[in-house]
C-alpha cells in the first residue's frame, strides 16, 4: 500500500471514491491553549470547490475553537479510516451561517450518509478551505 499526498482540488479516482463512501470521520481543531480537540463528525468533500464541510450546532466546542482562531481561520484536519485505508484533508476552517451554505452542506451530507439530518435552527457549517490531501490506500 502506498502513502501519498496530492492536490485536494484534483484527487485521483481512488481517493475521491474513498471520500464518497459512508465513513465516520474525525475533525481536529486547536483549543485556545494549542492542544488538539478531536471529535467524530460526518464530513463531505467537494474537490471542485476545494472544500470539506461539517454540519454542527453553533454552540459546539469545535465551532468555538474555529471562531477563537479569528479572521484567518483555524488550521484543522479531517480524517477517515477504514481498515488499512485512511485519508486526511487539511486546511483553514471558517464558520458559515448563511442559509445557502447550510443548505448545500446538508444536501451533501444527506447524499454521502444516505440520511437527511433533522432540522436544526442552530445549525452552522464549518467550511474547510483545503490546502492538503494525504492518504494510504
Give your account of this protein's structure.
With 137 residues, the chain is α+β, with helices and mostly antiparallel strands. The protein contains three helices and eight strands; from the N terminus they run βαββββαββαβ. The chain has helices at residues 13-20, 61-68, 99-113; strands at residues 3-6, 25-30, 36-41, 44-46, 51-57, 74-82, 85-96, 123-136.
Task: Outline the biggest β-sheet.
Answer: 8 strands, antiparallel
Poorly predicted regions: none
CATH top level is Mainly Beta
Shape: globular
Count structural domains.
Answer: 1
> Beta-strand percentage?
35-45%
The strand count comes to 8
- Overall CATH architecture: Roll
What is the alpha-carbon Rg in Å? Answer: 14 Å
Question: The CATH topology, please?
Answer: Pnp Oxidase, Chain A
CATH superfamily: Electron Transport, Fmn-binding Protein, Chain A
Query: Could you say which structural class the secondary elements and strand pairing correspond to?
Result: alpha+beta
Please give the share of residues in helix.
10-25%
Mean pLDDT over all positions: 96
**Structure annotation, total helices:** 3
Distance between the termini: 6 Å
Query: Topology as H/E string?
Result: EHEEEEHEEHE
Tell me the layout of helices and strands:
Elements lengths: L2 E4 L6 H8 L4 E6 L5 E6 L2 E3 L4 E7 L3 H8 L5 E9 L2 E12 L2 H15 L9 E14 L1
Antiparallel strand pairs: 1-8, 2-3, 2-6, 4-5, 5-8, 6-7, 7-8
Task: Describe the structure concisely.
By secondary structure, this protein is an alpha+beta fold. It has 3 helices and 8 strands.
